[in-house]
Amino acid sequence: MSPTVFTGKTCVVTGAGSGIGRALAENLAGRGARLALSDIDGSNLAETARRCESLGAHVSTALLDVSDRDAVSRYAEEVVAEFGIVHQVYNNAGIAYFGSVLESDFADMERVLAVDYWGVVHGTKAFLPHLVASGDGHVVNISSLFGLLSLGGQSAYNSAKFAVRGFTEALRQEMIAERLPVRVTCVHPGGIRTAVARNATTARGIDAAAVAEIFDRRLAFHSPEMAARAIVTGVRRRRARVVIGWEAKGLDMFQRVTGAGYQRVLAVTNPFTAAADRNRK
User: Fold this and answer.
1) Which residues contact 9 (CB under 8 A, 6 or more apart)?
2) Which string of b and e fits 112-141 if b means at least 16 CB within 10 Å?
3) Are strands 241-244 and 182-189 parallel, antiparallel or unpaired?
4) Given a cut of 50, is residue 1 above it in pLDDT?
5) Which PANTHER family match (predicted)?
6) DSSP code at position 219
7) Within its chain, how far is the Cα of 81 from the centroid?
8) How far apart are CA 39 and CA 21, in angstroms?
9) What 8-state DSSP symbol labels residue 40?
10) Share of the chain above pLDDT 70, in %
């Protein structure tokens, strides 16, 4: 491993207060990176900063709602003012939501897109000129397994994560075509044990706790630390795509082989749909 990939580099991580974001921050801290960490939850963010500082990292923190375009733009300027340069941006912040198209309110769907898609766009756009100026930039955008295939009840989340994938892959092509010094990676985690599912909102009448319990019991196979290691390895190896977890890789292959056929299979085996039907209030 070349230590220069991370040592002394300024790395921005959104959603750093817990889950994959916290694990990423700690992993990067252990590799000698300088960290600009943000989250909407100040107490969790402070704990992440404490852990990273105990590893010897230079850390700055900021409360940030990534759906607020102006706030993200101001934040980018503040990071550059403090660190002088930015090398890597990990657009990780996200939220989850469960509800069918028929029963979901527009406001709930719009909130998922505002955070999970527009948050990625805001972070990329705000920092991209600085990444180019660094001469050694890297954008890492967190999509999902649900950016590779769709699942009933996840239409809003699917929409956001497919959009992240399309945006990120287009950006990578632009950086290559324009010969700009910015590498681009799209990440597709499978079942990671984070607070995202437990904090998810749902359509009216659906028991959020029951849906979260299904995710934790049947789908949360991997630790955030495992996901962070996979992401950092992908960055080091300059991979365009990182798919995390045996189940994510298997389902990705399944949908490639079956084409649209996978949709009929998942329609009748979807554990979230069954849980929602049993637990509607």
Assistant:
1) 33, 34, 87, 88, 136
2) bbbbbbbbbbbbbebbbebbeebeebbbbb
3) parallel
4) no
5) DEHYDROGENASE/REDUCTASE SDR FAMILY MEMBER 7B (PTHR44196), DEHYDROGENASE_REDUCTASE SDR FAMILY MEMBER 7B (PTHR44196:SF1)
6) T
7) 25
8) 9
9) S
10) 88
What is the average pLDDT across 169-197? 91
Q: Is 233 helix (H, G, I), strand (E, B) or coil?
A: helix
| Catalytic machinery residues | 157
**pLDDT of 188 above 60:** yes
Separation CA 13–CA 17 (nearest Å):
10
134: left (phi over 0), alpha (psi -120 to 50) or beta: alpha
How many Å apart are CA 85 and CA 62, to the nearest integer?
17
How far apart are alpha carbons 237 and 258 in whole angstroms? 30
135 phi-psi bin (left φ>0, alpha ψ -120 to 50, beta other): left
Closest CA to 95 of 211, 205, 238, 194: 194
Q: What is the DSSP letter of 7?
A: T
User: Which residue in this structure is represented by tokens 């929409």?
Assistant: 159
Query: For residue 235, what are its two tokens?
Result: 């960055």
> Per the structure block, which two tokens stand in for 28?
């990067």
Residue 215 banded pLDDT, cuts 50, 70, 90: low
Which of 211, 191, 197, 198 is CA-nearest to residue 277?
A: 211
| Res. 272 pLDDT band, cuts 50 70 90 | confident
Say if CB 98 and CB 276 are below 8 A apart: yes
* DSSP codes, 96-157: -EE--TTT--HHHHHHHIIIIIHHHHHHHHHHHHHHHHHTSEEEEEE--GGGTS--TT-HHH
Cα(80)–Cα(176) distance, integer angstroms: 25
